[in-house]
Amino acid sequence: MKIVIIDYGAGNIQSIKFAIQRLGYEAVLTSDVEEIQKADKVIFPGVGEASSAMKMLVQTGLDSLIPELKQPVLGICLGMQLMCNYCEEGDTKGLGIFDVDVMRFNHDVKVPQIGWNEISELESRLFEGINENEYMYLVHSYYAPICDATVAVSDYGLQYSNALKKDNFYGVQFHPEKSSVAGEKILQNFLTL
Amino acid sequence: MLTKRIIPCLDIKNGRTVKGVNFVNLRDAGDPVELAKIYAKNGADELVFLDISATEERRKTLTKLVLDVAAQVNIPFTVGGGISSIEDVDALLKCGADKVSINSSAVKRPELINELSGKFGNQCIVVAIDAKQIDGTWKVHLVGGKVPTELDLFEWAKEVEERGAGEILFTSMDNDGTKDGFANQALAKLSSELNIPIIASGGAGNIQHFVDAFETGKADAALAASVFHFKEIEINDLKQKLRELSIPVRL
């Protein structure tokens, strides 16, 4: 199985690579279009600021490649947010895979949300073997509201999407690579889809 | 619901843990990676590695440690100690650190906070503040609490937030090492005045101190070293107790 992690200069990619290694697989970091097209599984990471991350995707042509991919694609954190229509952060147009706009948490809660929150209403093979209300590690200031693509819900001042799915595209707001054994199980589920 | 975090802190010198640890089942008690793995398994929510080495090799040693931890540990971790430039942070994040913590370098040049959060995002920038009370007011101190500054804790914390810190790690030098509990009044004031998470540090001696830090101090997370290293408190017992008291924790 060929696993690629899309490399566009975004954040903590090393941790994802290591987590995949712990599961007994190898992942290749690449921005090469052909290599990404040929992969069995594609991971689309992202840490940092939305508009500058999007700019890097546009510069490398990855913005048109990603929505066309046919194999399972997993967006993580900012990766998931960029797969949505729009991100309030930096007034950024997203890839439009998930039909939802990513908004900033309002000020009834501390921003960023940092730490472990529960995921519930789990509705995807991604969560096979994962209990309702399992804890996942999150670090984020923006969130995707509940929408048709929602497959996991969390509560932080309001209910929001902690995971999204449409066709072959999956997105998680939490960091499976940092979410202990349960997170590794979710990564494993994705890799064996 | 977002849970309160329990964070063991490991002091590191030349790639090895410094303070004594009392883990009988550890092959090598000086190996931070072994220790980190045990903490992750025992329910720690996050780890902090504080590097106190002062050699020219330090960055090389530290980045190697970060790589090793990231390869083997499946929970988030923060690295602090002597970080003073974008290059330092870039190297540590690239090796797999989730967050970096800056302290003296931010006091000396506050713009560093803006630069780092602008480049890497505020979510990975922790500003550590050491403070103690002098004549009834909390003053920020440097060099592990040895050197006083004119900065007021609460004013500095506010500035740190405005400049783009994602989180504040507040250590009360009055409480640190006393095992008498955290500085809950100052914590509560920080937590109510700021809109970013506050990590409480300094003073943990028993389980009730953690309860107080969350209930009275309104802390989002609590950090401790020796009570965990010497097994005076088992993280699982601590979290069970917190849950019994309806304080949300990950179990």
List the helices and strands and how they pair.
The complex is a heterodimer of chains A (193) and B (251).
Chain A: E1 3-6, H1 13-22, E2 27-30, H2 33-38, E3 41-44, H3 50-60, H4 62-65, E4 73-76, H5 78-82, E5 84-87, E6 92-93, E7 98-104, E8 113-119, E9 134-140, E10 142-143, E11 150-155, E12 159-166, E13 169-172, H6 180-191
Parallel strand pairs in A: 1-2, 1-3, 3-4, 4-13, 5-7
Antiparallel strand pairs in A: 5-6, 7-10, 8-9, 11-12, 12-13
Chain B: E1 5-13, E2 16-17, H1 32-41, E3 47-51, H2 58-72, E4 77-80, H3 86-94, E5 99-102, H4 104-108, H5 111-120, E6 125-134, E7 137-142, E8 147-152, H6 153-162, E9 167-172, H7 184-193, E10 198-201, H8 207-215, E11 221-224, H9 226-229, H10 235-244
Parallel strand pairs in B: 1-3, 1-11, 3-4, 4-5, 5-6, 6-9, 9-10, 10-11
Antiparallel strand pairs in B: 1-2, 6-7, 7-8
Tell me about this structure.
The complex is a heterodimer of chains A (193) and B (251). With 193 residues, chain A is an alpha/beta fold. Chain A has six helices and 13 strands. In chain A, the strands form three sheets. In chain A, strands 2-1-3-4-13-12-11 form a seven-stranded mixed sheet. A four-stranded mixed sheet of chain A has the order 6-5-7-10. The longest helix of chain A is centred in the C-terminal third of the chain and has 12 residues, at 180-191. Chain A is globular and about 45 Å long. Chain B is built from ten helices and eleven strands. In chain B, strands 1-3-4-5-6-9-10-11 form an eight-stranded parallel barrel, surrounded by seven helices. Chain B is globular. With 251 residues, chain B is of the alpha/beta class. Helix content of chain B is 37%, strand content 24%. At the A-B interface, helix 1, strand 8, strand 9 and helix 6 of A face helix 2 of B.
Q: How many strand units of chain B?
A: 11
Major β-sheet annotation of chain A: 7 strands, mixed
How big a fraction of the residues of chain B is strand? 15-25%
| Shape field of chain A | globular
Q: Biggest sheet of chain B, in brief?
A: 8 strands, parallel, barrel
What proportion strand of chain A? 25-35%
N- and C-termini, Cα separation of chain B: 13 Å
What string, H for helix and E for strand, traces the elements of chain A in order?
Answer: EHEHEHHEHEEEEEEEEEH
* Through-space gap between termini of chain A: 11 Å
- Helix/strand-derived class of chain A? alpha/beta
Q: Strand sequence of the main sheet of chain A, in spatial order? A: 2-1-3-4-13-12-11
Largest interface, and how many residues on either side? A-B, 36 and 33 residues
Rg of chain B over CA atoms, rounded to whole Å, is 17 Å
**Element-by-element helix/strand order of chain B:** EEHEHEHEHHEEEHEHEHEHH
Radius of gyration of chain A: 15 Å
Helix content of chain A: 10-25%
* Arrangement of strands in the largest sheet of chain B: 1-3-4-5-6-9-10-11
The geometry of chain B reads as: globular
Task: Outline the low-pLDDT stretches of chain A.
Answer: none
**Total number of helical segments of chain B?**
10
- Mean pLDDT value of chain B: 92
